[in-house]
Amino acid sequence: MTERTELFRPEILQRRIDNRFGTPLYQQHSLLRGSVLLCILLVIVLLTLLVITPYKETEPARGVLVSRQGAHKVVAPVTAVVQHIDVQPGESVRKGQVLATLLSATFTADGSRVEQQQIKQLDEQQHLLQQQLALQSELLEQHHQQLRAAIDELEIARDLIDGEAQLLQQQLQLKTTNLAAMQALQRSSAISKSQLEYAKVEQLDFQLRVQNAEQRRQALAVQQNSQQAQLDNLALEFSETRLQLRKELQQVQLTIEQLELQSHLAVVAEADGIVSALAVANGESVRASQPLVYIDSDPDQLEATLFVSSSVIGQMFPGQELLLNYDAFNSQFYGRYRATVTHIDKASLDPREHLLPVPGIQEPVFSIKATLAQSYVEGPDIYRLQAGMLFSADIVTAEMSLMALIFKPVMQLRARLV
Q: How far, in Å, CA of 316 to CA of 257, rounded?
């Protein structure tokens, strides 16, 4: 048996060397480990969604529906001032219907209209003629009362003379009877001849008094007839004067009406259609041939007209799709509808120089035409679209992922720093 000289056996030394660092022991809880794995999985899914989910930046734009064939322009026939617009956008009109009323725009040196000055002068003349007619009526009434009073006085005086003549006639009859009796007495020599002569003188005096009363009665009758004739002539003269004044008043009124017709111009529709837009407002001055109203003669063929700002126009192109939200229909119930860009104007429109059919635009804009995917809206009910309806459109200006959207401010800041 061989004697071993090593202090430790080689197998034991080798085992200790192999187990120098020991065996690691993992004693983590299984629930914690699952939570960590779940969080890592959620982060990975979230990052994936942020990378693959698209995001579209949009700019709103306002627009109006118009006829595809184009609106018919109704223009001002002469230079004038718009007194009143009688229609509103979206209103149906018939041929010959009054669309607007214009006032002549011919002015004097002081800034007033010529026709208005003429009408004012004619109104003053008419007022004077009316006063003159009223004055003539008052004068006629006064003269009529005076003549009627004179005639009544003559009638009273005539009645008094008639009474006096009747009394004198009775006295004359008595004197005549008395004279006859005295003549008989004188023939019988009962009285003297002088007494008979005295009775004859009295009887002759009463005859003269009766004749005088009759003459005065006739004179009063002639005077009364003359007064009545004057009264009749006065009424006739006043009738002629009143007729002349009325003729002058009618002539003045006719002239005023002609001036008003000349100064008030009615602009009418030349054909049936629907008002798509108003180009002017009440009180504005217009030139000859300046558009007043736009009318769509074929409202069934519609297209969308949008007005976009200069910050968006560079990103627009024919064939681009739009989503329209009509003001008249709640998008929550009727949704939004597609349209396709067909034409883009090159020149801008300044709302300070052009009356745009869409209210609320304050900056220069560009006009864009787009065709509609459908000419009706669907929801609780189905409605047909009409020219003049306003809408809002969402225009896509950029497309990116949600991740790019999140880091967009960082990238913009980096671009500024560089």
A: 56
Given a contact cutoff of 8 angstroms between Cβ atoms, the answer to whether 115 and 259 are in contact is: yes
CA gap 370, 307 in Å, rounded: 11
pLDDT (tens digit per residue) in 143-199 = 888 888 888 888 888 888 888 888 888 888 888 888 888 888 888 877 888 888 888
Pairwise CA distance, residues 388 & 305, whole Å? 10
- For residue 370 the two structure tokens come to 């787009």
Q: What is the DSSP string of 213-247?
A: HHHHHHHHHHHHHHHHHHHHHHHHHHHHHHHHHHH
Instruction: Please state, in angstroms and as integers, the Cα–Cα distance from residue 337 to each residue in 274, 331, 359, 390, following that order.
Output: 23, 9, 22, 13
| 3-class DSSP assignment, residue 8 | coil
Q: What does the alpha-carbon distance between residue 135 and residue 406 come to, in Å, rounded to a whole number?
A: 93
Residue 324: closest CA among 367, 385, 366? 385
Indicate the helix (H) or strand (E) that contains 312.
helix 310-313
pLDDT tens sequence across 242-285: 888 888 888 888 887 776 666 677 888 888 888 877 888 888 88
Residue in the structure block whose two tokens are 């529906």:
65
What is the pTM (predicted TM-score) of this model?
Answer: 0.42
Count of beta carbons in the 10 Å neighbourhood of residue 152: 12
DSSP letters spanning 351-393: TTTS--SSTT--S-EEEEEEEES-SEEESSSEEE--TT-EEEE
Q: What is the largest CA-CA distance in the chain?
A: 249
As beta bridge partners, residue 324 has 337, 393
**Backbone dihedral region of 298: left (phi > 0), alpha (psi from -120 to 50 degrees) or beta?**
beta
Which two tokens mark 399? 């497309």
User: Quick one: which of 260, 353, 268, 255 has its CA closest to 77?
Assistant: 268
How many CB atoms are located within 10 Å of the residue 296 CB? Answer: 24
Return the closest-CA partner of residue 136 out of 251, 237, 227, 233: 237
Structure tokens at 17: 């060397």
d(CA 231, CA 367): 83
174 φ/ψ angles, rounded to the nearest 5 degrees: -65, -45
Query: Cβ distance 148 to 140 under 8 Å?
Result: no
CA distance 296 to 271: 10
